[in-house]
Each structure stands twice: as C-alpha cells, then as structure tokens.
Amino acid sequence: MIKAVPGWLEPIVAIFVLQTTSSFLARFIPIIAPAVSEEFGWGGSSIGYLTAANSLGGLAILVGGSALLKQVGGMRTLQLSLVLGSASMAFFLNSSLGIALAACFVMGLSNGAANPAGSEVLQRYSPPGKRNLIFSIKQAGVPLGGVIAGLIIPAMVVPAGWRIALLVCALLVLVPTLATWRISARLDETPSSERWRFSMPNLQSLHQLRVPLQSLLDNPGLLKMSIVGSLFAISQTCWFTFTVIYLIDALGFSLGLAGVVFAVMQAGGVIGRIALGWLSDHMGSATASLSVAAILSATTTVLLGLSNPEWPIWTIIVLAFVAGCSAASWNGVQIAEVARRSPPDLISETSAGSSILVNVVNMLVPTAFAAFVAFSGRYDYAFGFAGACTLLVLIFLPRERE
Q: What terms describe the molecular function in GO for this protein (predicted)?
C-alpha cells in the first residue's frame, strides 16, 4: 500500500526552490562583478558597495513590506520580487555604477522577502519534532544557490562573456519562479477578497514600520536570538561577498578556480545547515549547536585572512568547506528558534524583525570591509575583526528556557 505524501512536503519543496532561486540571484553579484568591473573600470571595492545595495533592497522590503506580505501573501511577494530581480539584471549592461547599484537594490527585494515568507508557511506545516530540520532544509537553499552560481557563472563568463551569462542567469531566476506560481495560491494565508486592497501610505502605515522590530521585544530570548543572527552574519557576509575577489586579488587565483572554491564553500553550507538542524533536534538544544558553529566560523574567517599564495590549493578548499559548514550553516536553526519563540500571530513580524538586523549587518559590513581594504590594503585585519565579532555569539546566546 502506497503511503500518503506528508502534508509538509509540497510547502517545503516550493519554499526550498524559491529560497534557492533567491540565493542564486544574490550570489550572482560577487561572482560576476569582477568581470563587469574590469571592463567598466569600477574597481575591486565596488563589489562591496554592490552587495551592500543588494542588502539595502532586502532591508527595504523587511521594513516597509509587512503589509504586502500580509495582503498578497509571503510566497506571492517573494515570487513578484524574483520577477523584478530577473528583469533588473538587464541594467548591468549599462556602464554606470549608479545604475548597477539601483539594479542590485531591486534584486535584493527577494532576499528580504524569503525569510518571512518561508517562516510563516513552514511554521504552519512543520511537525514540531522536525521543525529545526525542516527550517534548515529550507535554509540549505541559500548555499545551494551559491553552489549553482559558483559553478555555472564562471563557466559561462570565461568562454562566452559576462553578457551571455547575464541572460542565462535571468532565465535561471525566472523559470523556477513561474513554475511555483500556482502553488502559492494554496499555501499563502491572505485576507478574503472583500477585505483585500492596497492603500496609500499614511501615518498609520508609517507606524507599522516599527512593528517588526517592536515584535522582538516580546521576550528577552527572542531579541537575543535575533542579535545572535546578526553576529553570525558578519563572518558569513564577508565569506559570501569577498571570497572570489580575495582569491583573485590576494592569492592569484583565476575566476574559474575562485568560483570552484566559492562553490565548495557553499556546498559546505548545504551540508552544514541540514546537519546542524538535525543535531539541534537530536540534542534538543539550539544553543549547543550554535555555539559550535560560532567557534568554527570565527576560526575559519581568521584563517582566511592569514592565507597567502604559498598555501597549497587543497588547504584553501578544505578551509572553504569547513567555513561553509559553520559560517554559513547557522541560519536554519536561528530562524526556527525565532519562529518557536514568537507569538503564533506574529511569526512573520518577528521573522522580519530578526531579518532586518541581519540585513543591516549585510549592508554595513561589506561597505566597511571594502572601504577598509581600499584604504589599508589589509585583508588579514578585516577578516580577523569579522571573526572576532562572531565569537560574541557565545555571549548573546539565550538559555533554552529564556
């Protein structure tokens, strides 16, 4: 007799596909930017600013898009932002850095919508005993998108040029988005058609901008867990944003080899996120698993800054893999903990509030990192400081009962 398909399977597959697509759109920037900036003469530090603009787009929809998420639905909002992001990639054909920054801002909208959309849907469909694992599987889509970007984009840029790669990447975002279009109508919780409407911004809507952050103050553990996410994000965004350009500029790697190392790091993130989610459920403690991830994340980030051209390539690959398993593996457990500690009717708001803190870090850290390296030329100090900041996770991690 054929067993019935679990009710949570369709939601997690749909959210996983959209999460992977959103991540691919974000990881596209630091991988293709070296080729674009070289042709247009933007300079290596522009990668940090483009990434910051992408994070600013995510921050904008987290702060101002809560009403859209409620009325249109989380999955539909994510899908619409992916369509816009795919279209905005065409603006990279213009040589203006300002236009590229605006395009990155639009592309970042999907990154901001992904966590609230996924948290709201999965919290309703996840079995309690598998919540950390399911959230971690969903978050494994983030590094998987990076794996795809790291392997595919350099493989297209080298023989065909970055413009052809741009077109293919736009299609790779658009196709899975449209493939999941009908599913959102069944999974999203939206108001009835009689009450569904948009309204022009007013004082009341401006007041709603405070709701995501205000919702984190419901209990101390919720706020601490959100701060933990922002501290983890410091090392993660440095790895995601600067690995390729660092390997090319400081270690003399080709774009293709740097892309492979980036893909290995992201593959470590896929394995690490699922393993950390399983470990947290098995131990019944998110605090213990996140403590291990914080120590490994800080160590690998410092070691990346200390690396030099004399290091064998295999040591860089191993370091990148371990970093993926730690610096890029915390998200699923942290997001699941935020959802678990949230009042049931405020899950999308608390998820958005926590993501706002992470996106602020993702916006400020690449900018500061790029400016520091441009001024001092010292990658080692920049990576070292990022690793030290991540160790603060051990101080802010809440107790299980808090």
A: transmembrane transporter activity
